[in-house]
From TrEMBL:
CDD domains: Radical_SAM. It comes from Leifsonia poae. Signal peptide: none annotated. It catalyses: glycyl-[formate C-acetyltransferase] + reduced [flavodoxin] + S-adenosyl-L-methionine = glycin-2-yl radical-[formate C-acetyltransferase] + semiquinone [flavodoxin] + 5'-deoxyadenosine + L-methionine + H(+). This is Pyruvate formate-lyase-activating enzyme. Belongs to the organic radical-activating enzymes family. GO terms for cellular component: cytoplasm. Binds 1 [4Fe-4S] cluster. The cluster is coordinated with 3 cysteines and an exchangeable S-adenosyl-L-methionine.
Length: 263
């Protein structure tokens, strides 16, 4: 892949065209982590922009695409290639996260095609809300999808995210038909998503997908609270405590009783 033009060299209209066809993207940040965002040592790429407004979001600074840094596909691919040997040794790879990465689906598709050609294990971390934007070719180039099922009850989902549950279910159904491996993630928030009925509803949804390899119960934390304050956004979970070990165990047990491998 030859070097593309620097974003600084593009006119406004050229940059918009480059965004539409996936040659550049708005990037929030990237980090190298181990055993957090998938198997092995991974580069996690955080794209800017998200249509959801999850009440427990620990990265509200990724919500607006305009707050990211315009970065070329070539630059991202070169950075991934720099760590390819580490990925091979550790069984790691690239995790494309956000924000909501499918808000920039053309870029994600180009990136996944490039990393597949390099033999780099590639994960998409998504809410599924914009799953309709993912092309069949993109799904073919992914090794794994982290699908965040934030609630199993439509009303609770709206309360958590301000969005609708149905697109996530539809995307999960599509991933199942395409036999794309999936890890389901469920954030456990006391007083918000912890109701036994809601957990059972999540399990009902997940059980319809035979391609789900595991469910991860992620305990709510307050590590992102300071970002809300700095951004001047009203944070409604100030007084919410992380779930107790007993609550986490109860929820994990609910999923396991449904035959789902759960951590």
């Amino acid at each position: 892949m030859g070097p593309g033009p620097s974003p600084d060299a593009l006119s406004r209209s050229e940059e918009l065209a480059a965004r539409r066809d996936g040659r550049v993207a708005s990037i929030h940040s990237w980090e190298l982590v181990t055993a957090v965002d998938g198997p092995g040592t991974r580069m996690t790429l955080f794209l800017s922009g998200c249509p959801l407004r999850c009440r427990y979001c620990h990265n509200p600074d990724t919500w607006k695409m305009r707050d990211g840094v315009t970065t070329t596909l070539d630059e991202v691919v070169r950075r991934v290639e720099r760590y390819r040997r580490i990925f091979q040794v550790t069984g790691g790879g690239l995790t494309i996260s956000g924000g909501e990465p499918l808000l920039q689906s053309a870029f994600v598709a180009r990136l996944a095609r490039a990393t597949r050609a390099m033999g780099v294990h590639t994960v998409l971390d998504t809410s599924g809300n914009l799953g309709r934007r993912a092309s069949d070719a993109l799904l073919d180039d992914l090794d794994l999808v982290f699908l965040d099922v934030k609630s199993g009850i439509a009303g609770t989902y709206r309360e958590v995210t301000t969005a609708e549950l149905r697109p996530t279910i539809d995307f999960g159904d599509r991933l199942a038909r395409a036999a794309v491996p999936v890890w389901v993630r469920f954030v456990l928030v006391p007083g918000l998503s912890d109701d036994p009925e809601n957990v059972e509803a999540v399990a009902d949804i997940v059980q319809r997908w035979p391609n789900v390899q595991r469910v991860e119960v992620l305990p709510f934390h307050q590590l992102g609270a300071g970002k809300w304050e700095r951004l001047g956004i009203d944070y409604t979970l100030t007084d919410t405590q992380p779930p107790t070990a007993e609550l986490v165990a109860r929820v994990v047990a609910q999923f396991r009783r449904r035959g789902l491998l759960t951590f």
